[in-house]
């Protein structure tokens, strides 16, 4: 047995908080059929803007299909977005901070959370040729190489330079109820950047299970002065097929949202990101 496999079989990775994750998480109906966005104040105009954004978000959240907001049918549905909301609530993002002299409550940012009846959302999905993605959402073990000029590193659970990246990845999972785990440095000691870019997905999926994930999400991000942002390449294997997708000229926050969104699209059965 190789040193890589021996280490993979004997070690267990930790998530960002330092606790061993489960490979998949069960979700409740209440968790699934809701979405959240940020609006300014609680006025009717901004509420309607928020309703439209929440509609896009809940359809993607329930189905996993990132293509739905781009469908032409969404234009008419957004005009009626408020009709589909069952209940909604606000949370003042500046709660506890006194209102400034020239600032009223209408100026303050609020989280707008919209809750929907499953039958309503499921009917909308059917009209768009889609369906709910029910059941457990998997934990993805992230294997990521980063390159910015002379700065190179492989993201691990302990890598200090990757702290904000791990936080960003965790933030990207929330809207889709996904989860991520990161390998400890010892688990990937035998893997260099080249191996992570080219290694067989079956081998990395094996290691992913020891990290606490259901499978591997493998990526590389390279800073490009020409693109004024990161070039991010991702791959994930599902049902015997390896999927690849890319985004260019973006922040790493966007790159990681594209990574999680692409993984959700694949795992929900909606095909190529």
Structure characterization notes:
With 273 residues, the chain is α+β, with helices and mostly antiparallel strands. The chain folds into two domains: 3-27 and 135-267, Rossmann fold (3-Layer(aba) Sandwich); 29-127. It contains nine helices and ten strands. Residues 1-20 have low confidence and may be disordered.
Mean pLDDT: 88
Quaternary class = single chain
Helical run tally = 9
Helix content range: 25-40%
Total beta-strand segments: 10
Topology:
Blueprint (H helix, E strand, L loop, with lengths): L2 H8 L13 E2 L3 H4 L1 E7 L3 H20 L10 H6 L7 E6 L16 E7 L2 H10 L9 E12 L2 E4 L8 H11 L5 E3 L11 H6 L2 H11 L3 E10 L4 E10 L2 E10 L1 H16 L6
Parallel strand pairs: 5-7, 5-8
Antiparallel strand pairs: 1-5, 2-4, 3-4, 5-6, 8-9, 9-10
Helix pairs in contact: 1-8, 6-9
